[in-house]
Design brief:
There is one protein chain. This protein is an alpha/beta fold and 360 residues long. The radius of gyration is 22 Å and the shape is globular. About 22% of the residues have low confidence.
């Protein structure tokens, strides 16, 4: 379990910032406040741990050449990324990686020594990340031979939809699990039905070219690509959830994307149930009050303890990201409230009440 991420001079984080994580942690805040940055830093550590040094362009994350780092007196750009972890079955400790980005864009990992790299690999191997940029596209509905053993080592974004479709095509147990989850969340069921153009069975790690992305509602087959991004994106998220090994770290950006509020609530319940069953650590980056309310309701019901539920509010001041940790009580309440998070809903409700009063 990762208990803390540390960032210094990385993107919009200037001073050393400690980001505490619990079993379930929710990141909230305005657009552009830096909510995704800690997760990008983790993926940068992951791809660096399995490479020959630090690289900002890789299969897990591509941060480009310009990280938006704060310069230090014109002598180059220095940033630090660190993680603290606790795992009774394996390792306890912490790793800090100090990186110097020189003016010529050369990157030196000043603390990337073999001992730390070995430790980092052990921690990073079970970190998984579901980006907001997920879903199936037309090019992935007809799949050529794909090695599905690559799946969920967090491949490049462009490859993910084909890999997910390949996994669904060759794994009937996975299809049934995703179908059951999807039915409970959206009332749409995926199945394999050769006669109706659905998922075709396949053997071995490679899947022959075939059309695999159809979904069956109660009455007719529908191409999932054309069904809309709600079910489309949800399938990819659920496949990742199903394939995470026990004890993994799973971060999901905007789990609510393109989902009806009722489906958002159902999805969060599925995530929490799976996390409990498989001892997963979850980080949810969200703009949805329905996602947050569901977490708080589970705390109030006693299904999630306050010590296992974290809430971090991200904001910016003068271009610098600042994080405020909000305490969740055993009653599922947030100490100090969240005026910025709910203010739009409250303003709209006030305007509605005012408008109604004029019709008396």
């Amino acid at each position: 379990m990762i208990t803390e991420i540390r960032l210094e001079n990385f993107k919009s984080f200037r001073e050393l910032t400690k980001i505490p994580l619990k079993k379930v942690t929710v990141f909230i805040g305005p657009n552009g406040s830096g909510k995704s940055t800690p997760l990008q830093a983790l993926m940068l550590l992951k791809q660096s741990a399995f490479a020959e040094g630090v690289t900002t362009r890789g299969i897990y994350v591509d941060l480009g050449d310009n990280l938006g780092l704060f310069s230090i007196e014109g002598h180059g750009l220095n940033y630090k990324i660190g993680v603290t972890f606790q795992d009774e079955s394996r390792l306890n400790g912490e790793v800090d990686i100090d990186v110097l980005v020189k003016p010529n864009a050369h990157i030196d990992a000043t603390s990337f020594i073999p001992e730390k790299q070995t430790m980092l690999k052990s921690v990073m191997d079970n970190i998984y990340y579901v980006s907001e940029w997920r879903g199936f596209y037309q090019s992935s509905t007809d799949i050529s031979a794909v090695d599905t053993n690559r799946l969920f080592r967090n491949p490049a974004v462009a490859d993910t939809s084909s890999l997910v479709a390949s996994a669904l095509s060759r794994d009937p147990k996975l299809r049934r699990k995703i179908s059951d989850w999807l039915k409970g969340i959206t009332d749409v069921r995926i199945d394999h039905a050769l006669a109706r153009g659905g998922f075709l069975p396949a053997e071995g790690p490679y899947v022959p070219r075939q059309n695999v992305l159809s979904q069956l509602s109660e009455e007719e087959a529908i191409n999932i690509v054309n069904e809309g991004f709600g079910s489309n994106q949800l399938v990819q998220l659920l496949v990742q959830l199903a394939r995470c090994p026990k004890g993994s770290f799973l971060a999901i950006e905007e789990p609510e994307a393109h989902l009806h509020p009722k489906a958002q609530v159902a999805l969060v319940k599925v995530l929490l149930e799976r996390a409990k069953e498989y001892d997963l650590q979850l980080v949810l980056v969200t703009h949805s009050e329905h996602v947050l309310h569901t977490i708080l309701n589970q705390v109030a019901k006693g299904n999630l303890t306050p010590k296992d539920a974290g809430l971090l509010y991200f904001r910016k001041e003068d271009g610098v990201s600042i994080i405020e940790e909000r305490v969740i009580t055993k009653r599922g309440q947030v100490k100090g409230g969240l005026p910025d998070f709910f203010e739009v809903e409250l303003e709209q409700f006030s305007e509605f009440v005012e408008a109604l009063s004029k019709h008396k």
